[in-house]
């Protein structure tokens, strides 16, 4: 319990530091977002309206940075992430709530599939060393080093076109309204196939390599030899003894990868113009949209910290050696 409380205190401090940086970093970006917004109206706003925009967006020049910082914390406690400059006057929370499900479904499903598929193939490759599965290692080593977005660019070049089944951008066909019906769902699935495949191909290779290496290491342990000496079946030794212990690093790695679901595929969403969190962040950076940048960074930060805490707890439960006695 003491260890768990220490970890929670550490992550609370880390969250405070991350939110503080989240406040200051966008303000260091050169440019004036309010002036950029005014330029869209081609000078049709009066001086009073301009000053009102600065106050509305929390950039009142009469306020000190410290007062803006305190106001920012007050807004967070009330669940107010401000108004977006890019999609003015839409609240940031509404934009994130619309784009977050796209990222969670795309990256979440592919992360889970790649973990179970890669772990299973890694167990097979590590337990049956010297078989045909070892021939896959050079391919998996190469694919694990290839960035998601590079595979995405190649997929767009090779598999998309005027007569192709796979669209090159977007999350659904033009003219459709997001809804759970027979028109929107097939369209959304078709648009997500290529982004999902690029993530799956690149990520599954890493799980195969890590699990295969752990299986090789565990297979040389004394308790594996003892299990064979007892006359246990090869399958039972592989699954109940070797794979069970080799799985520990992959489980913690899987928990950490869940934290990067929100922001880990930013470039993939940009390449495919997929309407997720990463694409919204890209648009916010181009428009110096402080509130939207801060909102996206906040969601990414919290998800990573929660995933790290889950990884610590999972490892504590799975490996008794990490537990501290009173």
TrEMBL record:
Compartments in which it is found: Cell membrane; Membrane
Record protein name field: Peptide ABC transporter permease
Segments crossing the lipid bilayer: 7-25, 102-124, 136-159, 188-209, 254-275, 295-318
InterPro entries: MetI-like, MetI-like_sf
Annotated ABC transmembrane type-1 domain residues: 100-311
Organism: Actinoplanes cyaneus
A single BP term in Gene Ontology: transmembrane transport
Record keywords, A-Z: Membrane, Transmembrane, Transmembrane helix, Transport
Leader sequence residues: none
Family stated for the protein in its record: Belongs to the binding-protein-dependent transport system permease family.
């Amino acid at each position: 319990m003491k260890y768990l409380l220490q970890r929670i205190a550490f992550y609370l401090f880390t969250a405070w530091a991350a939110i503080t940086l989240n406040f200051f970093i966008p303000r260091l970006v050169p440019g004036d977002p309010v002036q950029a917004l005014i330029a869209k109206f081609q000078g049709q706003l009066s001086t009073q309206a301009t000053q009102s925009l600065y106050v509305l967006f929390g950039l009142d020049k009469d306020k000190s940075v410290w007062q803006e910082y305190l106001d920012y914390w007050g807004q967070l406690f009330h669940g107010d992430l401000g108004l977006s400059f890019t999609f003015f006057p839409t609240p940031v929370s509404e934009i994130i709530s619309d784009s977050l499900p796209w990222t969670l479904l795309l990256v979440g499903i592919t992360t889970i599939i790649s973990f179970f598929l890669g772990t299973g193939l890694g167990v097979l490759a590590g337990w049956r060393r010297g078989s045909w599965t070892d021939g896959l290692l050079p391919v998996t080593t190469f694919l694990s080093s290839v960035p998601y977005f590079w595979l995405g660019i190649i997929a767009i070049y090779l598999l998309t076109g005027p007569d192709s089944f796979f669209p090159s951008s977007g999350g659904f066909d033009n003219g459709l309204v997001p809804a759970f019906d027979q028109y929107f769902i097939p369209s959304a699935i078709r648009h997500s196939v290529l982004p999902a495949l690029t993530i799956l191909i690149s990520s599954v290779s890493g799980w195969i390599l890590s699990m295969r290496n752990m299986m090789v290491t565990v297979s040389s342990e004394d308790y594996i030899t003892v299990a064979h000496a007892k006359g246990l079946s090869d399958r039972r030794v592989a699954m109940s003894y070797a794979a069970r212990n080799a799985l520990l690093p992959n489980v913690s790695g899987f928990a950490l990868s869940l934290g990067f679901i929100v922001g880990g595929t930013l470039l993939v969403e940009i390449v495919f113009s997929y309407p997720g969190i990463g694409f919204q962040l890209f648009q916010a950076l181009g428009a110096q949209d402080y509130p939207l940048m801060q909102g996206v960074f906040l969601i990414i930060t919290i998800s990573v910290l929660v995933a790290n805490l889950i990884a610590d707890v999972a490892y504590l439960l799975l490996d008794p050696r990490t537990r501290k006695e009173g």
